[in-house]
Design brief:
single chain, about 160 residues, alpha/beta, Rossmann fold, six-stranded mixed β-sheet, 6 helices, 6 strands, about 40% helix, globular, Antibiotic_NAT-like, DUF436, UPF0340 protein FD50_GL000043
């Protein structure tokens, strides 16, 4: 079955715009994307990577983020230790550790390959702290998003410790 790339583009754009409307990001902020093209197609994560879907998603996300001057980081799969593709300029400015890996379809994934194709100077980094993110396909991006804990959780946790 051929994926409906127009529908995928539409859903990604809609979801991203909804997220951005509540995230209040500023120019220069970092946005992390986790993406399983296998799960988008209804398959088990890592079992049916699709480069056409990855390219559609990356082009859509970049088209939304670039005018807002928000930087994109694309998380790879566990085969690359969840390393992230970012622009070299972003990595240097933030002091991120650049690592020497290059994504493949089943090691890094289709979205990472598409990011390498679309970024000016793509590099892989080991870890980031993004201000927001979108996880398409349960890829576990939480480790790369700024930690936020609500006051209610803090007081509940303090009560548990007393």
């Amino acid at each position: 079955m051929t994926p409906d790339l127009v529908e995928i583009e539409k859903r990604v754009r809609t979801g991203l715009n909804e997220l951005l409307a509540t995230a209040h990001l500023e120019p220069g902020d970092l946005f992390v994307l986790g993406c399983s093209t296998s799960e988008i197609q209804g398959n088990k994560i890592g079992q049916n990577s699709n480069l056409a879907i990855g390219r559609t998603i990356i082009k859509t996300v970049l088209a939304v983020l670039h005018p807002l001057q928000i930087n994109l980081a694309v998380q790879g799969c566990e085969h690359l230790n969840r390393a992230l593709v970012v622009e070299k300029e972003v990595a240097k400015r933030a002091g991120f550790e650049i690592v020497t890996v290059f994504p493949a379809l089943h090691a890094g994934g289709a979205a990472q390959i598409a990011a390498f194709e679309n970024f000016k100077e793509p590099v892989e980094v080991e870890h980031i702290i993004a201000q927001a993110g979108m996880d398409i396909g349960d890829t576990a991006i939480g480790m790369h998003v700024k930690f936020v804990q609500s006051r209610e959780n803090l007081s509940a946790n303090s009560k548990l410790r007393t």
